[in-house]
Design brief:
CATH topology: Metallo-beta-lactamase, Chain A
CATH superfamily: Ribonuclease Z/Hydroxyacylglutathione hydrolase-like
Structural class: alpha/beta
Helix content: 10-25%
Order of helices and strands: EEEEEHEHEEEEEEHEH
Radius of gyration: 15 Å
Number of helices: 4
Strand content: 25-35%
Number of domains: 1
CATH architecture: 4-Layer Sandwich
């Protein structure tokens, strides 16, 4: 866990995070988790099984939980019988006082996450702290405009950026701290995160996954 200006950020393994601040509990892409505090908001970047896990969502949701994700998730959202909101890149929402913006998330040189499918990354603002979860993405030009305090970047390669490409994305983003993700479960391992940190330096922060 890392705490930034009172906002707590927990890595849950793979691309999953729990973020707590302003009295709100937010999950992003929970996958293979044991459970945890009930979510006020669950954010889903896209419909692949390792990001949209109905089993894991049920562990942390209540009738008051709001789930948010792109159009490709809508059918499963309805099946969950939860309040849901459908977003596309460029959407801006205020959900119970939490500012949530969506940004594009896509592959440039591979075909796993085509831009046309409308998968998203999220930018969340809590207690004045701006947190960017990039989703399953390559280094893309839209990153230049985000200017977050914290960036959660995939480094595992194959389906996303590898460590070297993510380090180039750090240069594009230019500000804040950078937490590597999307390794250690399906693709990539800790050596990818360590390689990322060796290139980026002290601005890179490695978090141990929550048990």
């Amino acid at each position: 866990m890392i705490e930034v200006k009172g906002v707590k950020i927990y890595w849950l393994g793979h691309a999953g995070f729990r973020i707590i601040g302003d009295g709100k509990t937010i999950y992003i892409d929970p996958y293979k988790i044991k459970g945890g505090p009930i979510a006020d908001i669950i954010l889903i970047t896209h419909n692949h099984f390792d990001h949209f896990s109905v089993e894991d969502i049920k562990k942390i949701s209540s009738p008051n939980t709001v789930i948010i994700g792109p159009k490709e998730c809508e059918a499963k959202f309805r099946a969950l019988s939860m309040e849901h909101k459908i977003v596309k890149p460029g959407t801006s929402l205020d959900v119970s006082g939490v500012k949530i913006e969506t940004v594009p998330s896509y592959n440039v040189s591979k075909s796993f996450h085509p831009k046309l499918e409308g998968k998203v990354g999220f930018v969340i603002t809590l207690s004045g702290v701006k947190i960017y979860h990039a989703g399953d993405t390559d280094r893309i030009p839209e990153m230049v405009n985000i200017k977050p305090d914290v960036s959660l970047l995939p480094v595992g390669g194959t389906y996303t950026m590898n460590a070297e490409e993510a380090a180039q994305a750090v240069k594009d983003i230019g500000v804040g701290i950078f937490i590597p993700m999307h390794y250690g479960t399906i693709v990539g391992d800790r050596s990818d995160a360590e390689r990322f940190k060796s290139i980026v330096g002290e601005k890179a922060v490695l978090i141990e996954p929550e048990d």
